């Protein structure tokens, strides 16, 4: 991607797939090595006991525990980390798709949802799925960079996605699970391009989960599994969509209510603010309205007339921890 320095106005090209140049080079080397060796490694490992088969996420290689374990100890390729949706969240998404009458799902960076739809929905209803992801370790997908819209294997990737678009019949939807702290503007450009291609080549009605501008943030917690910093009960990740919120029912077990003013479901701990004209609580206890800021704020935060912001960590750094807000 082409970046511009804010002060010097100098233009530079940087990797759109990884945060550091080192991770980019490491992935290129690993993917090349993986593609060259995976066939012979797989054939060899098939002859070994299952307990002796190992896989290194850093090197993208299969190996025998008895032979190559010492060479891969300590490897931890953070840039290639996959964080998976929890089973509860997957069942919730499938229920939403079923209620909306979705027949085609394009998964962008959501491999577990793709596998879940392929494996666990055959007996429930007919759904066609396709996966776009940058991770070369996956199968049954097209390798795709969601920030610049690039297919790594242009001929086969474009042909596969075009075949999927042409086979779409009925309601279609794009579901995207982007990396944390991703740049939204290029992401939306790539997703909009996919949406237009899907509408042009496919048939039926198109339901969008992402589009500029994003209109709604649903209050339902997105939960994950196998993540060292994840706790199901305190997830701050939410679902963004431009679908009508009233059409998306809350997950089972969530104490929810329907807000007539907002025309959407929300948690019982998310009361409607008549001044903001919205259900404003995003996470934690109910927010309270701050007249000075003309918006709702988390409870426990006090407005400071000196800086015009709320007391907290950054306020303490600027004005001292013991200073009382005025």
Protein architecture, described:
GO terms for molecular function: rRNA (adenine-N6-)-methyltransferase activity. Its main location: cytoplasm. It comes from Schistocephalus solidus. One of its GO terms (cellular component) is cytoplasm. This protein has 326 residues and is of the alpha/beta class. It folds into 3 domains: 2-80, no CATH class; 84-212, Rossmann fold; 287-326, no CATH class. The chain contains 7 helices and 20 strands. The strands form 8 sheets. A 6-stranded mixed sheet has the order 9-8-7-6-10-11, with helices on both faces. The protein is globular, with a radius of gyration of 23 Å. The two termini are 46 Å apart. Mean pLDDT is 76; it is low at 208-212 and 321-326.
Note the topology:
Layout: E1 2-4, E2 11-13, H1 21-45, E3 53-56, E4 61-64, H2 65-72, E5 84-85, H3 87-100, E6 102-108, H4 111-120, E7 128-133, E8 142-145, E9 150-151, H5 154-167, E10 171-176, H6 184-201, E11 206-208, E12 216-218, E13 224-225, E14 239-241, E15 256-259, E16 264-267, E17 272-273, E18 278-279, E19 288-290, E20 295-297, H7 313-319
GO molecular function, one term: rRNA (adenine-N6-)-methyltransferase activity
InterPro entries: Mlase_EEF1AKMT1/ZCCHC4 (IPR041370), ZCCHC4 (IPR039846)
Subcellular location: Cytoplasm
The CATH class of the largest domain is Alpha Beta
Proportion of residues in extended strands: 15-25%
**CATH level 3 topology of the largest domain:** Rossmann fold
- Helix-strand makeup class: alpha/beta
| Outline type | globular
Major sheet: arrangement of strands: 9-8-7-6-10-11
CA(first)-CA(last) distance: 46 Å
Instruction: List unreliable stretches of 5+ residues.
Output: 208-212, 321-326
